[in-house]
Amino acid sequence: MTADANSTPLLKEPRPPWLAGHRSFGFLYTASIVVGLLVWQVIAQGYSSFVLAPPTGVAVRLLEMVASGELPVAVAGALRHMALGYAIACGIAIPLGLLMGRLRFVHDLLDPVVNFVYAVPSVAWVPFIMIWFGLYFEARVALVVIMCVFDMIIVVSTGARNADQKLLNVGRSFGASAWQRTRLILLPECLPFLFTALRLGVVRAVNAMITAELFLAAANLGSIMKQAAVRLDSAAVLGVLAVLCLLGLALQEILLLIEKRVCVWRPKGAS
């Protein structure tokens, strides 16, 4: 669209404030990682590589493990039981959390149990898991479920409990069935809490995955860490930790991206 000589020049549309904030966040995000790596490099120079390998040494060791195929195979094996355990936890936590949030008798019945189990450190369940499920794949899946499900139940039930009752009453007055009210009103109302539970759960799943591989039969990434510790190969140990950090970060960012696409009514600057 053009303006003629006698018309008022077109004004440039102002840039949304959330866009500038997003760019600022991206810069700070990158800067914090760079500064952290520089601090790590400086500190590592004062120690032997056996005690604290520098970031450059860790990067070289990671490349070696990737080139040999050791790391990709270990990551793929670890993701198998992590993904299955996380999926089972979601299948339990989401419907159970919704029921606890909306039905008083379900909440009163299960809330003491959930809080009782949640108060127990997750690692304390390892001996029972070894007795019930053994030391291998099933046991690793079980530990992932236990470490994820209770955090997710608490968040989902809180979201369901805070859903706007007026909207549910409007749906009921228009003759919507219980399933229609759940699908069309309750779930959209709870979406921010659901995504928060998913993000919290996926971080716990990464934590549980490596915990299972270290405390049960050593396998995949846990096996690499144990063997590296015996060889005093701190670069390999830190490399696995870096992979775990990046995995958790990537999964959270993917869920945040999906949340922004799904929860389109939320402010752009909201996380």
Automatic annotation (TrEMBL):
CDD domains tied to this protein: TM_PBP2
Pfam families attached to this UniProt entry: BPD_transp_1 (PF00528)
Organism, scientific name: Azospirillum himalayense
Protein name, as recorded: ABC transporter permease
Keyword ATP-binding: no
InterPro entries: MetI-like (IPR000515), MetI-like_sf (IPR035906)
Membrane topology: Multi-pass membrane protein
Stated family: Belongs to the binding-protein-dependent transport system permease family.
Keywords: Cell membrane, Membrane, Transmembrane, Transmembrane helix, Transport
Subcellular localization, as worded in the UniProt entry: Cell membrane
Keyword set includes Cell membrane: yes
Transmembrane segments: 25-43, 83-101, 113-135, 141-163, 184-206, 235-258
Domain ABC transmembrane type-1: residue ranges: 75-259
Location, primary (coarse class): membrane
